[in-house]
Amino acid sequence: MTTRQARAAHRWAVGLAAASLTAFIASAAILLSDGELFPGADLLRFLLGTFFGPLAFALSVTVLLRKSGRLSASGALRSAAAAVPACGLAAVAVASLAVGVEEVDAGAGLGWFGSATLLFFIAAWVFGTLSLMAPLRSVTAGGLPGTVALAAFSALVLGGLLLLAQLFGTLAAAVLLLVALHPGARAHRGAQGTPGAPANPWAAGARPAVGPASEEPRGRGAAAAACLVSAVLGIGCAVFALSGSSWTSLAADATRAMNLGLAAGVLAAIPAVIAAGVVLVPRLGAVMSWAAALLCAGLLLEAAAQLTGSGDPAQWPLTLAAALSAGFALSLSCGRLIPDGRFLRTGTTVLLGFAGVIPGLVLVTAAGFITPLAAAVLFVLLLRGRGKTGGGKPALQPA
After folding, report:
1. Which of 230, 240, 253, 310 is an S-S bond match for 375, by CB 3.0 to 4.6 Å?
2. Is 102 exposed, middle or buried (0-12, 13-18, 19+ CB in 10 A)?
C-alpha cells in the first residue's frame, strides 16, 4: 500500500468510525429523550442503532486491518461485501422479532414476517461468519475449520452485543474512533521536537511539571482524608436508601427513603471526586480540574433530580443533564489519547462527550452505591502512594 493509499485508508477508517459513533449516539438520544414522539423517529432510531452503526463499525475495522497490512485487498473486499447483508439481515431479524412480539401481545396470529425471525437470524449469522473469516484468518494460525468455528462464534457474540446492547455499541465505536485516530498522531509528533515549539500537554509522552516533592505527599494526605469522608458518608447514605423508611420518620415510604439516600450519597461522592482531580492534575494536566468540575456538576444535578422525587416531571431531564455533564467529564479525561489539531481535538472531544452520556447515566444514577467502594479503593491507593513518595521521609511502618 502506497503512502497516498495509506492516508486515504486512514481518513476512511476515521470517518467510518466517527459515522458509527454518531449513529449510535443519535439512536441513544432518540431513545432517552421524547424524540420517539415525532413521526418516523422510531424507525430512524432503529435504522441508526441496528444497521448504520454496526455497518460503519464493521467497515472501519476492515479498513484498519487493510491499512495495517493484515488483510489483502481481496480479503478486505470480501469482508466488506459480506458485512452489508449481515448487518441488513440482522436489522431485519430484530424488526421481525419486534413485530412478532407485538402480534402476540395483541392476541393475533403471527404473520409471515413476525414468524420468520429465526430464518433472518440464521441468514445474518451466515453472512456475519463470512465477513469475519478473512480478518480472523489473518490474525490466527488455525486451519479453515477452526477459523470457521471461531468466526461463527464471534459473529454470534458481536452481533448480539452491537444490536441488543446500546451501551456496548456506543463504547465500542468510541474506542474504535480513538484507535483509528492513533496512527495520525505519529504525523504530528515530529513537529513537537522543533525548537521553540510549545510543549503539548496532551501528547503521549508529555507530563505536566510537578511541584516540590514535599507538596505532593501533603496533597495526597488531604485527598486521602476526603476519600475517607466520602466512604464513611457513602456507607451511611446507602444504608439509609435501603432501609431508612423502617427506622426513621424522615422518609414517608421506601421510595422516598431511596430518593433521599441516593441524593445524599451522590453529594457524598463530591469530596472523593475533588480529591481525585487534585491528585491527577500534576500528572495529566489542568484539564483534569475541568473534568472533576464537570463531574461534580453532574453529581449536583443528579442530587437535585433525586430530591424532586419519583414521578416529578423535572427528574428525568435533570438526570439526563447530569449524565451529559458526566459524559463530558469522561471525554476530557481521554483527551490525551487524541492527536494534535484544534478542530480534530475539539470535534472528537465533543463526540466522545455525547457518547459518554450512556456510561455517565450509569455513573450518576448509581453514584450513591458506587461511592463507598470507589472512595475506599482510592483512599487505600493514596495512602500507599503517599508512603512511596514521601520526599525522603520513611514510609509509615505498621505498628
Report:
1. 230
2. exposed
Residue with cell 415525532: 38
Rounded (5°) CA angle 10-13-16: 145
Longest dimension (CA), the chain: 79
pLDDT single digits (tens) 12-50: 999 999 999 999 999 988 888 877 778 888 889 889 988
- 3 state DSSP class of 249: coil
Q: How far is CA 179 from CA 10, 184, 244, 354, in A?
A: 11, 10, 47, 18
Q: pTM for the full model?
A: 0.80
Q: CA–CA separation, 84 vs 93, rounded Å?
A: 14
Question: Is 133 within 8 Å of 151 (Cβ atoms)?
Answer: yes
The enclosing H or E element of 325 equals: helix 315-333
Q: Which of 68-77, 103-112, 137-146, 268-277 has the highest mean pLDDT?
A: 268-277
Report the interhelical angle of 367-388 vs 215-243 (nearest 10°). 160
At 11, phi and psi to the nearest 5?
A: -65, -40
What is the chain's length?
399
127 pLDDT band, cuts 50/70/90, is: very high
